[in-house]
Amino acid sequence: MLIEPYWPHVLFVLSLLLGATAAIHAAMTKEEVRSAIGWVGIIILSPIIGALLYFIAGINRIRRSAISDRRFMLGHVRDHFEAYDATNGMVAERFGERYAAMKVLGDRVTEHDITTGNSIDLLTTGDDAYRAMLTAIDEAERSILLETYIFDRDRVGQRFVEALTGAARRGVAVRVLVDAVGARYSVPSVLGMLRDGGVTVDVFNGKVIMGLRLPYANLRTHRKILVVDGRTAFTGGINIREGFSGELFGTDCAVDTHFRIRGPIIANLFAIAAADWRFTTGEDLLGEPWQIVPPASEPGEPVAIRAVASGPDRSVETNHKMLMGAFSVAGRSIRIMSPYFLPDRELITALITAARRGVEVDVVVPEANNLTLVDRAMTGQFDQLLKNYCRIWRAPGAFNHSKLMAIDGRWAFVGSSNLDPRSLRLNFEVDLEVMDVSFAKELERRIDIAISSSTQVTLERLQQRPFPARLLDRVLWLGSPYL
Question: Do the bridges between strand 173-179 and strand 200-204 make them parallel or antiparallel, or are there none, so unpaired?
Fold first, then answer.
């Protein structure tokens, strides 16, 4: 072939173009100098392979028109709810100046106001959550909007398929958005069953192997949102799969916590999910079926809640910023329950600074984790907190997937975000900032019950482990941003 004598030159030019493009992009877009230096170094050492790795795993922002979609959607659903927005004075009077400062932070880093007049119910098992969600779907009269990460084609998934297809057949407007990766947890996926039943369904950030979305294959929606008739919403950490059902899976089922919500906060949750639907399909969810029902409660009544949407677009690290603020205002206690506890250096510094101020910092993680590599990486950085007055606890029993946080018995943060790099920088997440004493104290009570049966992790026990095991933990910890 004519090109054969010149293939080294072609390879050189290709490596130069790919390497230069990737290195320039990394230098111009990365906000952390360590991340930028790391990627540029990889690209220089291996221009072609390094550039390909960067295009697949290093581009952590989606430039999407849906950046303004939530504002667009909020303009159509918030007409009746401005009176429910909490004021700085109201928050200061009820919770103190520290938490008034948290309100200001949330106002400036999120796209949603903190609203009063809400109610929030804990659904403490998968069976409780699935039962409540299926009941709401069965009773739907106008509309159902569901966004989830995993929707398995198993016995729980089929119950949801039957409920959703039944709603569609009786004339309810139904939209289901499943992450493109999460949809592949079952083979074949559940999507065909939904479409055959008349449900309008799509996948978020699809075509992750071929086509123009390849650079964004690492960026997933991890959100779990269900809005029914603009009247009732559900969110939290639970996916749709039978592994969380004690009824179907037995005593070995995983544990999670979900939340049923009513009130003005539904407008914000709907706007988030509707924006993701618009980004995926181009369809605007407008009109009578999608109207949000004005709450029966009065403005100023409990509970004050803010929806915190974060993800690799303009809302990147919003959850991270909220956590940094919360750790800095904590005055008495920080209680955390997380299945995957891999905070970055900034969050670790905030936690240990709080502990050094005298704040009681307790972190509960599962004794048995479903992701071994993540668990080993977690263990590899425990010493950073234990050396600085923080306490870590290993909870026995079934794997607990709950993401719960309570601070000072006044402020809570719950939802889909794990305390790991993927949730804090790569995934699209949704969490709730809740200012309510009774709710925060209930979370504290649940975490304290878990602590009462847990084993405390100590530096002595960590250091007594064999050196090869400790070395492996640290090696896996080095790769934690990509686990």
Answer: parallel
